[in-house]
Amino acid sequence: MEYKIIGQTVPVVEMKLNRGETVYTQSGGMAYQTEGLTMTTNARGGFMQSLGRAFTGESIFMANYIAEQDGVSIGFASTVPGSVMPININSLPNGLVFQKGAFLCAENTVETKVEFTKKISAGLFGGEGFILQKATGSGMLFLEIDGDVIEKVLKPGEVLKISSGNVVAFDSSVSYQIEVVKGLKNIFLGGEGLFLTKLVGPGRIVLQSQNFRDFANRLIPYIPMQSSN
Is the Cβ–Cβ distance between 15 and 23 less than 8 Å? Predict the structure, then answer.
């Protein structure tokens, strides 16, 4: 499988497949394709994994695209302005943990499943939900990122505290915790919310410069409200 990233504002990952190669995405993720591809839809991974995807905000069903001949092309587009990040799972023997909504598409050899955080408090109050996702296996995974990509490598014991909506992904070696913002004034007047995500190294982490959910909330006051009369 060959691929290229097209565009900068709302980018597309375009793949070139040969006979028998398969890629999958959540329902509705495909932007365009050439002749020579067959689509099948299924609850990838069985009922429990499908149910888990529903909790993470992804589609229960996945669309699988199978190349019936050599040299066919298919494109998957991001949904908001930002970036598409290619990740080679072969280089991550223990897999990659990523937040809900980040998955764009992957080769059929990449397995994605729900990943439970070790502490219930992280899920109840973390802002991005109790259930994360984890990718393992081999092949290419493509993540959708709001805004620009920010990569950091944490040393053993090194700590980075992040607004939960700006966390995209991290190595399995990185521990994930939720920390309450200290001080009542900071909580109610600081504008950063009640909780921060605390990531502890070692390992690589991927952040996004924009949290589209926060951006959408800022637009709400400017949307005209329809009169009930």
Answer: yes
The upper half-sphere exposure of residue 115, i.e. CA atoms within 13 Å in the direction of its Cβ, equals 22
CA–CA separation, 52 vs 60, rounded Å? 8
- What is the value of pTM for the model shown? 0.82
Decide: 168 and 212 in contact? Cβ < 8 Å.
no
69/20 Cα distance (integer angstroms): 8
The residue ranges of DSSP E strands in the chain, in sequence order, are: 2-6, 12-17, 22-26, 30-33, 37-42, 62-67, 72-77, 82-88, 96-98, 103-107, 110-116, 131-137, 140-146, 149-154, 159-162, 167-171, 175-180, 195-200, 203-208
d(CA 146, CA 208): 6
Cα gap 54→3, rounded to integer Å: 28
CA 229 – CA 220 distance, rounded (Å): 21
At 25, the amino acid letter reads T
Beta-carbon count within 10 A of 82 CB: 21
pLDDT tens readout for residues 155-187: 999 999 988 788 999 999 999 887 766 644 444
**Residue in 168, 146, 130 with CA at minimum distance from that of residue 213:** 146
Domains of the chain: 2-213 (3.60.160.10)
